[in-house]
């Protein structure tokens, strides 16, 4: 293996990212796209940066388990992440002893679930219906979302 392809996650960066206040707040909670705007990964290769972000994704998902009323015995992954063997391995390690499986392996159209969810939210948004509620994300009142971009 050449040095260009070595992938090492920066565990220090992951620990700093997981120390953000969001991760210690009780449920319900939600993130905004700007919540991680000040976290940068500098001085690393693209491969190591990808490994770091993949490790962060697995670790942040694992952080939800203890906050749930009952810890899941199984986690089902759909969307593009389910096709990432590194992420799936990291999730398996982070969520053990729970079983981690792909929706596709259960007969689901795992690559379509995410698209279907976004389509459902888009229709609700177009109709002015809420996408988020106080009990799910902690907002004060039910809110619709998105802005229709016109060509």
Supply the CATH architecture. 2-Layer Sandwich
Percent of residues in β-strands:
5-15%
Name the shape in a single word.
globular
What's the number of extended β-strand segments?
2
* Secondary-structure-derived class: mainly alpha
Low-confidence stretches: none
Largest beta sheet: strand ordering:
1-2
Amino-to-carboxy terminus distance:
47 Å
> Average pLDDT value?
89
How would you characterize this protein structure?
The chain is mainly alpha-helical and 151 residues long. The chain has a single domain (3-108), classed as ATPase, nucleotide binding domain (Nucleotidyltransferase, domain 5). 38% of the residues lie in helices and 5% in strands. The chain is built from five helices and two strands, in the order ααβαβαα. The chain has a two-stranded parallel sheet. Helix 1 (11-18) packs across helix 2 (46-62).
Quick structural gist:
The chain is mostly helical and 151 residues long.
List the helices and strands and how they pair.
Elements (H helix, E strand, L loop, with lengths): L10 H8 L27 H17 L11 E4 L7 H11 L3 E4 L7 H17 L7 H4 L14
Parallel strand pairs: 1-2
Notable traits:
2 strands; Nucleotidyltransferase, domain 5; two-stranded parallel sheet; mainly alpha; 151 residues; 5 helices; 38% helix; single chain
């Amino acid at each position: 293996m050449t040095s260009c392809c070595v992938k090492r996650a920066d565990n220090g960066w992951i620990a700093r990212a997981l120390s953000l206040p969001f991760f210690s707040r009780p449920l319900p909670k939600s993130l905004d796209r700007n919540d991680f705007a000040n976290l940068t990964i500098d001085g690393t290769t693209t491969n190591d940066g990808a490994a770091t972000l993949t490790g962060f994704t697995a670790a942040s998902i694992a952080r939800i388990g203890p906050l749930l009323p009952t810890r899941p015995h199984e986690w089902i992954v759909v969307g593009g992440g389910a096709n990432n063997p590194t992420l799936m391995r990291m999730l398996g390690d982070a969520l053990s002893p729970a079983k981690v499986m792909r929706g596709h392996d259960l007969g689901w159209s795992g690559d379509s679930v995410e698209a279907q969810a976004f389509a459902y939210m888009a229709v609700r948004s177009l109709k002015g219906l809420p996408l988020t509620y106080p009990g799910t994300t902690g907002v004060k009142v039910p809110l619709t979302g998105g802005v229709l971009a016109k060509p």
